[in-house]
Amino acid sequence: MKLYITIPKGELRDSFLDNAAMKTLEANFEVERNESDRNLTEGELAVKTRDFDVLVTGWGTANLKKAGLTDKGAKLKFLIHTGGSVGDLIDSTAYDNGLTVISGNSIYARSTAEGALAYILTGLRQIPHEVVSMKEPTYWDSPRKSEGLFGRDIGIIGVGAVARSLMEFLKPFGANIRVCDSYEIDKDYLVSVNAVQTSLEEVLRKSTVVSVHAALNENTRGMIGERELSLMRDGALLVNTSRGPIIDESALIGELSAGRLRAVLDVFQHEPLSPDSPLRRMDNVYLIPHKAGPTFDLRGYIGRCLSEDAVRYLKGDALKYEIDRFSAERMTRHG
Predict the structure, then answer these.
(1) Is the distance from CB of 61 to CB of 7 less than 8 angstroms?
(2) How confident is the model at residue 142, as a pLDDT?
């Protein structure tokens, strides 16, 4: 089968498709690469890749649907996405036309959940403030009152792969978890992670920590606005490792400016964050440049896992990293 790697040459491709991953692909497919230093346009994809059975895509790859690559009768049958969400690459018609899809989503999810847990602990313990203060030679007795995670009331918005991993990580802390989502979650599963499903309003009202994990789509864009933020407890901690536009950033800035809430933000309305953003000057918010996950060291592992899954596809074996239609439809779509 003919395989085309759409990821441009450079660090991104080299970090995901290391020597081991490339060796596996080249031993099983007829491989060609995008040898430019940029992502191909939709038009270029349509021309350059129309005769390939398999595509390997990454961050920034143009929409395959718009390029005509997932239409009925198209040659493309197998998509290997080194990113997590495939929402910006395909729509449900790709499945109607026989496309099989794998991605690094499940690996991304655990890494992002690890990041979310780290951010929650960082926010409660106010670690950055203490680290900076300890650079002062006489600093010792902190006026800040650190908080822990044991027995906390945790609210989770959006129960996808990241949230499920986070709830697993929270088990040792005995946290009381409230979740909200647009679909009904299996009750036995919720019992196993000490969680209950409720409304968005109750999650916001009753949680001392709220962690956002909803996918971005037309229904979730701006779902946490001024009214929703006003429901949160005084002093509550808001953590967002999902997508910035899910929260009305202006409304959040208003609450943070008033000093009523705290936040750890990994994602923003517009990225990179403007140098003039008021968030950069606030003492009660920690900012991270969209690095919750995956951590850099996982990139090669993801590439190797996906290349091994590609061999399973050739053999007709069960796939470990397949993205089915239901999962794809719930993934982030920037629109």
Answers:
(1) yes
(2) 82
The whole-number average pLDDT for the span 131-136 is: 94
Tell me how far apart the alpha carbons of residues 140 and 156 are, in angstroms, rounded to a whole number.
35
Written as one string, the DSSP assignment of 208-276 is SEEEE-PPPSTTTTT-B-HHHHHTSPTT-EEEE-S-GGGB-HHHHHHHHHTTS-EEEES--SSSSPPTT
Residues 239-262, mean pLDDT to the nearest whole number: 98
Task: Tell me the per-residue pLDDT of 138-173, one tens digit each, with 9 for 90 and over.
Answer: 999 888 899 999 999 999 999 999 999 999 999 999
- Tell me whether residue 235 is in a domain: yes
Q: How far apart (Å, rounded) are the C-alpha atoms in residues 157 and 288?
A: 20
User: Does residue 29 belong to any structural domain of this protein?
Assistant: yes
pLDDT at 335: 62
**Cα–Cα distance measured from residue 240 to residue 158, given in angstroms and rounded to the nearest whole number:** 11
Residue 216, in any domain of the structure: yes
Helix (H) or strand (E) run with residue 96 in it: helix 93-96
Domain assignment of residue 76, given as a range = 2-103+296-329
- Residue 334 belongs to some domain of the structure: no
- For residue 76, what are its two tokens? 């493309």
Distance of alpha carbon 243 from alpha carbon 220, whole angstroms: 10
16 DSSP assignment: H
Q: What share of the chain is helix, strand, coil (3-state, %, to 5)?
A: 40, 15, 45
Same domain, 127 and 25: no
